[in-house]
Amino acid sequence: MSKEITARSEDYSKWYNDLVLKGGLADYSAVRGCMVIKPYGFALWEAMRDVLDRKFKETGHQNAYFPLFIPKSFLSKEADHIEGFAKECAVVTHYRLKNDPNGGGVVVDPEAKLEEELIVRPTSETIIWNTYKDWIQSYRDLPLLINQWANVVRWEMRTRLFLRTAEFLWQEGHTAHATADEAIAETRQMLEVYADFAENYMAVPVVKGVKSPSERFAGAVDTYCIEALMQDGKALQAGTSHFLGQNFAKAFDVQFSNKENKLDYVWATSWGVSTRLIGGLIMVHSDDQGLVLPPKIAPIQVVIVPIYKGADQKAGLDEKVMEIVKTLRSAGISVKYDDNDNNRPGWKFAEYEMKGVPVRIAVGARDLENQVVEVARRDTKEKMTLPLEGLAGNIQNLLDQIQQNLYDKAKQYRDSHITRVDTWEEFEKVLDEKGGFVSAHWDGTAETEEQIKDRTKATIRCIPLNNPQEEGKCILTGKPSKERVLFARAY
Amino acid sequence: MSKEITARSEDYSKWYNDLVLKGGLADYSAVRGCMVIKPYGFALWEAMRDVLDRKFKETGHQNAYFPLFIPKSFLSKEADHIEGFAKECAVVTHYRLKNDPNGGGVVVDPEAKLEEELIVRPTSETIIWNTYKDWIQSYRDLPLLINQWANVVRWEMRTRLFLRTAEFLWQEGHTAHATADEAIAETRQMLEVYADFAENYMAVPVVKGVKSPSERFAGAVDTYCIEALMQDGKALQAGTSHFLGQNFAKAFDVQFSNKENKLDYVWATSWGVSTRLIGGLIMVHSDDQGLVLPPKIAPIQVVIVPIYKGADQKAGLDEKVMEIVKTLRSAGISVKYDDNDNNRPGWKFAEYEMKGVPVRIAVGARDLENQVVEVARRDTKEKMTLPLEGLAGNIQNLLDQIQQNLYDKAKQYRDSHITRVDTWEEFEKVLDEKGGFVSAHWDGTAETEEQIKDRTKATIRCIPLNNPQEEGKCILTGKPSKERVLFARAY
């Protein structure tokens, strides 16, 4: 496969696909809308998952696992929920194949029809709350703080690698509480966990906010979200945390006896992030030479490429490089020594640039004589000569600098792409010419929101938390408004 | 729920279910044959998964993720494979629900019928080898060493928690090699990894062997396995590693150019263990008081229960116990301090006995005055007084002793339940009265194997590796045989 990447300026969408495919993150599969996550992409997901999982456990959550299948009738129990999820689901109707008696190969056995169809989970609120009914009797059983790492399926018509796939991997937290206040505090806490992860590990600055009613999760009272900005000026929802009120408890009759020994319905939250985050990560940091990955979640932080002529010179290098590898690994740095003899150094340089490895070290015999190595950073492409003495400390500093630089750069771009507008003319002009978030007044109605979407493809990404209250007029209808909201075109 | 457990001697099967349900490992779900893995059970699976995952990575494997769905036609491409898996699969036929125009709630939308049905993966050889076709061109692309952690579905008619469920969690390794020898070496290596894990982490002794042709994986040339023995004398297959020859490469046309630049089909292996292992773990070690978990994979290694009267005394204890907790954790021991005021110490003792926590420490004010704690081990129920001084080291020694004791005890039971028999009469008698493995001669034919199964429910569990060659006569037919094989009734 050619390693040439389409330039962002030429075709942004093709650039993105090139990065995913040629960077070795994922591949198309034979199943419509489903992708294969390749080892390098999966290692990235594992790194992200490990950080999040630790944070979930630190905040008192435990992992569990619930069934892949949901009885069809469960989906209907919460009225909004069925509206949101019935339209895009994989339906299991039979449980056996058989040889076609007419010689047509293997066919579905009509005698093996399920009494009730099963839906491949698009999200697990229903099956989980049906289970919680058996687990919760008293306030002593609360709070119940559970997370699940799982695959889910939503039958999307138009799919994009990582960003929108029929099957995707995610985590879904589902918690149960004795009071509304506790559940809201949990919802907000998990939003903070996601924001901290996005900003301090993915180096992706996010706006924290709450969704407008039209954009809420199907069945939620409030949906909180973090919104990130891509390099093409489009927004991406990077995580959501829902306050579900008592909706699912009522749908599945989950009541508990409170401290006053009175029965009440349980309060719920759910929250999730998915492999979609990888799509966002790619689009925030990468450039026309390939992926750029933040050191804190990069599967390989440092690659070492030996420069040599002939097997003898290589043998001499190997021994010394293995010492460097050992030193770096002892310092907690993940290192790959690429001593594959089939590829030349130039090919390797291009390969690891494509793969977004934060730091590249090139080592030749003369460098080692001089007790130095040649170091290149992926983000700025800056090169430097560093002494072997104290290398691990210097590389760790460099990794920290790269992490910070990626965040600063993304934040600068994001901050310079939040534009306040007060007229419809400006609104359309900014969306078309500049992109990014547009901060504007809105009259608060779903009708206006929909009209704006129809006319511009922009949606309300969120109403930021701690939004300053300010008198103004809706950009479309001129009706009075008390605060600005953030619009954007989005993935 | 009553914490009373049915005795093994009374009803072994009910004893097992009591342990799973009352020990908090898993629960039944609303979906036929699917279970919910509860937090304590999932923590156990995580501990097992982490060890295995590390071992896979140490032997050069990488994780990846392939689609949940398999196009129906893929299953048919390998002739034996379709025979083995078509009879028990979940079939997705539609991709949308809609509101019933006749008011019957939500129904499958007949217009959203898939052109080709999708099978929820029962195992992933087909979808993976269809993908490998694009990844492998040259010997330089080999070996390809990939593992996947995933959920799979097999529509079993009779299910048991952990032991046989419609959906279960597992890992499946799928590797591709340039030569048969390399693939066979990989198959054997992974069998060793499984055996090492079973014996040194699960404390479960296993027999390593190869399956008879009738018991092979559908599509394999050879199936290697590890077989464990439960306390009721029945065997359980604890892991399998398959040498697939070129069967899947031929079915999916995966060829590579070898070093001589000639095209050849790729050689394959696959290998897997599942949540079924948890069922085996329970049945090998547990007793009539509850679960007994080996320290190396126990989610909680040590529980500390405070003994006090009133809040003042408790406050005094808390501070000192937190020091003990800190000391133990620094030594890498996982500790839970159960200071829940709602339950009395006696209740807690029974609870953690039920949950199989290897070591329980009870701490009262007088103990602390005397600079000691009361320690009880779960396996032997032995109690001892240990000084605070040097506690972490003593507890670690105790955990090591418990691990060793569990293995020794299980091995003694297993070894005393391998019985050599030479006549049909003895064969039936041992199976009925003693159980365990029966080492007997067999004429090597599938017909005899099936007759023996029909008459006794015993199957050939394996032909042990390095089996001594010995002249003998088949216990059923009297025909000549060159080696003994291991029969048993099995889960």
Please describe the structure with a list of short key phrases separated by commas or semicolons:
homodimer; 491 residues; alpha+beta; BirA Bifunctional Protein, domain 2; 3 domains; 12-stranded mixed sheet; 5-stranded mixed sheet
Write down the Rg of chain A: 26 Å
Q: At the first level of CATH, what is the class of the largest domain in chain A?
A: Alpha Beta
Determine the CATH superfamily of the largest domain in chain A. Bira Bifunctional Protein, Domain 2
Low-confidence stretches of chain A: none
Percent of residues in helices of chain A:
25-40%
Q: Which pair has the most extensive contact?
A: A-B, 64 and 64 residues
User: What is the number of helices of chain A?
Assistant: 14
**Largest sheet features of chain A:** 12 strands, mixed
Q: How would you describe the oligomerization state of the chains in this entry?
A: homodimer
> Structural class, from secondary structure content of chain A?
alpha+beta
CATH structural fold name of the largest domain in chain A: BirA Bifunctional Protein, domain 2
Protein name (chains A, B): Proline--tRNA ligase
GO molecular function, one term (chains A, B): ATP binding
Domain Aminoacyl-transfer RNA synthetases class-II family profile (chains A, B): 30-294
Organism (chains A, B): Chitinophaga terrae (ex Kim and Jung 2007)
